[in-house]
Design a protein that fits this description.
There is one protein chain. By secondary structure, the chain is an alpha/beta fold. The protein contains 3 helices and 17 strands. The strands form 2 sheets. Strands 1, 3, 4, 6, 7, 9, 10, 12, 13, 15 and 17 form an 11-stranded parallel β-sheet that branches. A 6-stranded parallel β-sheet has the order 2-5-8-11-14-16. The N and C termini lie far apart (62 Å). It has 2 domains: 36 residues; 178 residues, no CATH class.
Length: 217
């Protein structure tokens, strides 16, 4: 037997072992994501270096079977979350949760201001007219919006004087002014969103915000 043939003969077991290890790794990794539901930090080319520290993921795998119709939401203080009955305690590990709602109104669908507790807005359908915004945040820190569908508003998401918030994996379309509009806001993370058919897709000024957007027309 030639040396080349011997080399090929002994290479096959090594290749099979390597392939098996890679398959096992992928199964474990994918299973972990499906169980925890969190998007890895480096998805979409995003790394912790981009933000100067650790960034919590947004629940992406969980979905709602049907939206629940709900009146517009207005929150003007940390205490409003508890007084209005939103689940959670407002900590980073147990944020208040606004989830699975269909809010159709010509004004602001969700308006939150002057808060520092942690809260999430997940899997909501926000639409209904261009006199208001889908999500309007003013002087807010610690918010995460993920998996929402926001359309036919003035601005899909409007952040004013707000920092350290995250907008992840939302579909924001057909808004009359901007899909995402940031003013006097910094250190916000806007990534893995689809912005399409808005008059203007996004505006963030020259402040220190971090963007990674998919889609867009």
């Amino acid at each position: 037997m030639s040396l080349g043939a011997m080399h090929r003969r002994h290479s096959w077991p090594c290749l099979l072992v390597c392939a098996g290890l890679v398959a096992m790794f992928l199964i474990v990794a994918l299973s972990g994501n499906l169980v925890t539901g969190y998007v890895p930090l480096n998805d979409g080319g995003i790394t912790s270096r981009d933000y100067g520290g650790e960034v919590q993921g947004i629940l992406l795998q969980h979905t709602v079977s049907a939206y629940t119709p709900h009146d517009p939401i207005t929150i003007t203080s940390d205490a409003d979350f508890a007084s209005q009955g939103w689940p959670g305690s407002g900590t980073q590990n147990d944020p208040y949760v606004i989830e699975g709602l269909n809010i159709t109104t010509s004004g602001n669908c969700i308006s939150i201001s002057n808060t520092r507790v942690h809260f999430v807005i997940h899997y909501c359908l926000l639409t209904g007219g261009i006199l208001g915004n889908g999500v309007s945040l003013d002087n807010v820190a610690g918010e995460r919006t993920g998996g929402c569908t926001i359309s036919e508003k003035r601005n899909g998401v409007n952040l004013g004087s707000s920092s350290n918030n995250s907008l992840v994996n939302n579909t924001i379309s057909e808004n009359s002014n901007y899909g995402v509009y940031l003013s006097f806001s910094y250190k916000n993370r806007i990534y893995l969103n689809i912005l399409a058919y808005n008059d203007n897709n996004a505006y963030g000024g020259d402040l220190d915000n971090h963007w990674n957007i998919t889609g867009g027309d």
